[in-house]
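Problem statement: downstream parser choked on a complex file, so we are re-checking the raw output for the adenosine-5'-triphosphate run. The parser issue turned out to be on our end (a line-ending mismatch), but while we're here, posting the original submission so the record is complete.
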Amino acid sequence: MLSTNNLEKRFGPVRAVDDVTLTFAENEVTSIIGPNGAGKTTFFNLITGELEPTTGQISYNGERIDGMNQHEIAQSGLIRSYQITNIFPQLSVLENVRLAVQAHRDVASLKKYVFHFSKFDAVVDDAYDVLDRAELTEVADQKAANLSHGQQRHLDICIALATDPEILLLDEPTAGMSPEETNNTLELVRQLAEEITVIIIEHDMNVVMDLSDRIIVMNDGSVLSDGNPDEIRNDETVQKVYLGGGV
Ligand SMILES: Nc1ncnc2c1ncn2[C@@H]1O[C@H](COP(=O)(O)OP(=O)(O)OP(=O)(O)O)[C@@H](O)[C@H]1O
């Protein structure tokens, strides 16, 4: 459904992403790992349209998306979670998700929602459905600013889910979380992966090994290795370059 072909991004002399050809399958959790500066974030930025490739192609559901703007790519179902920066802290949890549901509708529908309260109710119902998936229903009326760090990260994922993604990109979803919050997030991502495709950048190897169907190891902009958790754990090159033999 999503593939890259000879994808390359140069920043002056630096090849941040260097000849990356990958295909992502539906309903899999894929983790992208690698040392600092390996090109993981740049790869995400290329897929979501935040950066344009220097050369190479990106295809999504049979269409070229390289060169499309971020908004068009997001509308087509490829959504990135933005690590809390998308949250309006002074609004309630429900209002945050409701706004995201509304923003996803086109302008004509939006007018209907304003003038027909039955449609507005449907938006609220959708927002509650999303909160329910992340177990945030109980805090729906609280100010987003008052949530714990883990709950805010989940709210951020809810805001992404409210736009009905087919592919969800998550950048270090468990960063800064307590062990309990991390477990909740793992459970949430597992549930999501039953319906959508999830691609994660993650540094925590326990999370990566636990959660992933597939792991892509990047180094110096290139794909060093690509396989299931057992294959990556036993890959000698990966151990030498990245895992230090410790996993
Ligand atoms: N806007 C930019 N301008 C110049 N160089 C950049 C830019 N963005 C990234 N780079 C360089 O591209 C390379 C890849 O960086 P990138 O941030 O994609 O790596 P990363 O794997 O996400 O690293 P980290 O795990 O530290 O976030 C690095 O050498 C980085 O310095």
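For whoever reads this later: Residues 11, 14, 16, 34, 36-42 surround adenosine-5'-triphosphate (CB under 6 Å).
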